[in-house]
Write a structure and sequence with these properties.
It contains two helices and no strands. The radius of gyration is 23 Å and the shape is rod-shaped. The chain is mostly helical. About 60% of the residues lie in helices and about 0% in strands. The termini are far apart.
Length: about 55
């Protein structure tokens, strides 16, 4: 009978923990610095050509 590869399973658990930790960190960062998507999508007015503004 084949033996269980515990190190492989442990590595998988560690990767899951890292992924969750990173998602949690990004979520906290986004909550700390709220940025509206509309502000990111619209570029600032072009100051070189005032007729567009």
């Amino acid at each position: 009978m084949a033996r269980t590869n515990y190190s492989y399973e442990k590595r998988g658990r560690e990767l899951e923990k890292q992924k969750k930790k990173e998602e949690k960190r990004l979520k906290k960062l986004a909550a700390k610095n709220p940025v509206s998507e509309e502000a990111e999508a619209t570029p600032p007015p072009n100051e070189e050509n005032p007729s567009e503004a």
